[in-house]
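Hi everyone, sorry if this is the wrong subforum. Our group has a chain we'd like a structural model of before ordering constructs, and none of us has done structure prediction before. Sequence below.
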Amino acid sequence: MKSLLGLFLVGIATPVLAQQDHGAAVQQAPADPHAQHQVDETGGDPHAGHDMPPKPSEPTDPHAGHQMPTAPAKDAHDAHVGHEPGIPDPPVAPPSAAALRGPDHAADAIFGAPAMSPAREIARKEHGDIKSGMILIDQLEAVIGKGKDGYAWNAQGWYGGDIDRFWVKTEGESRFGESLESAEVQALWSRALDPWWNLQAGIRQDFGAGPDRTYAVVGVQGLAPYWFEVDGALFLSDKGDVTARFEAEYDQRLTQKLILQPAIEFNLAAQDVPELGIGSGLSTAELGLRLRYQFVPEFAPYVGVKYERAFGDTADFRRARDEKAGGWHLLIGIRSWF
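Answer:
Right subforum, don't worry. Here is the predicted structure as tokens:
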């Protein structure tokens, strides 16, 4: 009888203990809702690409994912950091009179005028008032051709600043062993029109075998596009004669030291000037080609050729003096500057 009673109590207690153990297990390890689901063998998340709902513990933003419109600024200053809308801009006005009543050179009060005056003069010269100069002997050459050989020169120099300069030009030619055939000197004031061109005006004095002439000169000189050096001038003599000259040359650098220089020159006259052997219209033209080797920029010997030709009445005046109207010449010379 006692045995039956013990078995009955054991049968009742077993399910109760099982339920208690099961509850404890649930509290210690919550069940995985995805348990018994087969996971992809590649390791991918079966929920990839699905939007997960927010956790209940985190409040949701009803505007999440929406772009909020920006409030338009009332004016351009409202968009600046620190600018409060509705506050007027500060007034714009020149400095007060008190700001202009200070000393002209405040540094004099600290360092003294004897020390600061030379310093200001140095600063003025080094920042916009630099004077410089140059002498260019563009052509100093022997001219070899049929008949007696001769020589010729073409040089110029200047001194001044970036805007205003004093300019001197000279050129001429003659034959070896004879008196000076023709020469001229120009003294010009030059004014910069822009970084490339200068307006020039002054006087020109001619010397030589013929009668001397004095001319008023006005012209331009500068650097044309593609680096052509151009010089053009109009001349009015003390006898009322009007003539003009146009020159252009170009330096074609073949190597760092070998330079080919083509050049062209035209001379024109508004009337015949028989005493000078000049005819109206296109009086003379000259084409030259010089090849120089620049040992240093300041010294470059050269060889070259030129063709010079007279036209119209100028050619007739030459023939009347038993001279040729034109021809070829071999040139050997030096180009230098300092």
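For your construct planning: The first strand starts at residue 132 and ends at 144. Confidence is low (pLDDT under 50) at residues 1-50, 53-60, 71-82.
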